[in-house]
Amino acid sequence: MTVDGKTAPASRKGRLFTPMMSEELVKRLHMLRADVDAVLVGLGTVLEDDPKLTVRAVQGKNPIRIVLDSKATIPLDSEVLDVGEAPTIVAVCDNADAVRVDRLVWKGVEVIRCKCDGRIDLKLLLEELYRRGIRRMLVEGGSEVRWGIIREGLVDEVFIWIAPYIWGGRDAPTMVGGEGFQNIDSAFNLKLKNLEVVDGTVILHYVALK
Ligand SMILES: NC(=O)c1ccc[n+]([C@@H]2O[C@H](COP(=O)([O-])OP(=O)(O)OC[C@H]3O[C@@H](n4cnc5c(N)ncnc54)[C@H](OP(=O)(O)O)[C@@H]3O)[C@@H](O)[C@H]2O)c1
């Protein structure tokens, strides 16, 4: 995020972060991906940024890409659906349109039908992913998904990268969106484990206090 907490400019194109990142920072990001079994994003991130979510800047195994997409509306030409690059799971609600789900399956994407209460039940999804052997997962974004996963208490570690820019914009996404906690007692509490500065970007590594 920028110094003012924005994870994309007001245009919502988070991809604009990439030219602001040094080669070393891109390597660090790809090292994080290579170190986990899966990377998770929400549909909003796919629609805005169309990321590949693969490991390219360092040697390492691609993680399984997971997209939260309640209604199975992800565009079929999304980069993340190219299963020739890496395996992909799309998590949908159990009432998602069968034709849309079939189209994903024909592309070679694995679809997990989830219990939903408006949105995908993240606790049940993570239990299912655990049964499939996924032990470490990196949640890359965006703001709504980060809120969902924090609200459910499903986070063990947090990496915050603060880039030396200010974007402003009242509608620009911030690190965590959603409804937010209503009082200070329920705030998500972290303990700082490490701090370093890489090419002017501050990298904070926290562990969650549960
Ligand atoms: N700088 C960074 O590190 C970074 C990283 C990633 C993204 N971004 C930026 O973040 C923005 C996208 O973030 P966003 O908040 O709009 O979208 P998002 O968090 O990527 O995706 C949210 C969508 O995921 C689906 N979803 C399904 N189940 C969910 C659940 N339990 N909890 C939360 N979401 C669930 C919902 O769509 P359905 O109801 O249709 O399922 C929801 O609207 C973009 O501007 C992108 O550029 C920045």
Write the layout of secondary structure elements.
Layout: H1 23-34, E1 38-42, H2 43-49, E2 64-68, E3 88-93, H3 98-106, E4 110-114, E5 116-117, E6 119-120, H4 122-131, E7 137-141, H5 143-151, E8 157-162, E9 189-198, E10 201-209
Parallel strand pairs: 1-2, 1-7, 2-3, 3-4
Antiparallel strand pairs: 5-6, 8-10, 9-10
The chain binds NADP nicotinamide-adenine-dinucleotide phosphate.
Can you put this structure into words, describing what you see?
The protein is an alpha/beta fold. The protein has a single domain, classed as Dihydrofolate Reductase, subunit A (3-Layer(aba) Sandwich). It is 22% helix and 26% strand. It has five helices and ten strands. A five-stranded parallel beta sheet has the order 4-3-2-1-7, sandwiched between helices. The chain has a three-stranded antiparallel beta sheet with strand order 8-10-9, with no helix packed on it. A hairpin with a 2-residue loop joins strand 9 and strand 10. The longest helix has 12 residues. It starts with 22 loop residues before the first helix and ends with a strand. The model has no long low-confidence stretch (mean pLDDT 96). Bound molecules: NADP nicotinamide-adenine-dinucleotide phosphate. The site of NADP nicotinamide-adenine-dinucleotide phosphate (NAP) has 28 residues, from strand 1, helix 2, strand 6, strand 7 and helix 5. NADP nicotinamide-adenine-dinucleotide phosphate (NAP) binds next to strand 1, helix 2, strand 6, strand 7 and helix 5.
